[in-house]
Amino acid sequence: MDGLGRVFNVVAVADDVYVPLKDASAVSFVCHLGAGDTFTVTSAASAGGSGAAVLATVDHFYDSTGTGGAWSKVTQAAASTVVNNGTAGHDCSVFTISEAELPAGHTHVKVASTSTGTVVAILHDLKVGRAPENLPALV
Fold first, then answer.
1. What's the Cα-to-Cα distance from 60 to each of 19, 55, 74, 96, 119, rounded to whole Å?
2. Which of 71, 124, 129, 132 qualifies as a cystine partner to 62, CB 3.0-4.6 A?
3. pLDDT score at 123
4. Residue 28 near residue 95 (C-beta atoms within 8 A)
């Protein structure tokens, strides 16, 4: 069986897009902009953003180059933002939001770039493995 559907599902263009965590236990966001960017995490009760609130649970993330360089761990006080500063080795950031971090009643999470950065959402720890063609639409 392929990784897609068994291990993960993905939204390739996920900047400012709510993704559901009802069929996955966690989502990792891959955020990139060579010049650096700030990415803000928000949760909501629906794909339309009802009850939206910033989600200040990110206490660490990993930085690298956007071309597969080594990863370095960055720790911070729990916040709703991740900043990659665009210096060498710090233009791509990855962090994970687990279903358990969402407030009661919230089922969706999004990451928004404050500039022109790209965001990829990789939903993982799927609750049910499926063939890729049987995965539910995410957006």
1. 21, 14, 5, 9, 17
2. 71
3. 98
4. yes
